[in-house]
Design a protein that fits this description.
The chain is an alpha+beta fold. Helix content is 29%, strand content 24%. The strands form 3 sheets. Strands 1-2 form a two-stranded parallel sheet. It has a two-stranded antiparallel ribbon with strand order 3-4. The protein has a two-stranded antiparallel sheet with strand order 5-6.
Length: 96
């Protein structure tokens, strides 16, 4: 399993935020909002400055590229509990 985060921020801001928060997983920068558009996550003019940002979301995607689990929210402060994500991962492991 690989954990990857996607941010609309420029690389230098993403790198600084990741370091400050102590994240150890990969952050990809999507400044052009291409990935968030593909996953229908664009929150039009959602930033304080009026820029398009991403809605908060978590996905579990299997090795074939199939989305197997999704958590979408409008509030970036509401995140799934780690045990809920692990339960979803366990469910994928038992699915044929």
């Amino acid at each position: 399993m690989v954990i990857v985060a996607v941010s609309v921020d420029p690389p230098e801001i993403t790198r600084e935020h990741s370091k400050k928060q102590g994240y150890t997983y990969v952050f990809l920068c999507d400044e052009k909002r291409e990935v968030i558009r593909q996953y229908d996550l664009v929150h039009v003019k959602g930033s304080l400055e009026g820029a398009d940002i991403s809605r908060p979301a978590e996905f579990l995607i299997d090795s074939t590229g199939t989305i197997r689990w999704v958590n979408l929210t409008e509030n970036y402060r509401i995140r799934p509990k780690p045990e809920d994500v692990l339960k979803a991962v366990d469910g994928l492991a038992s699915t044929p």
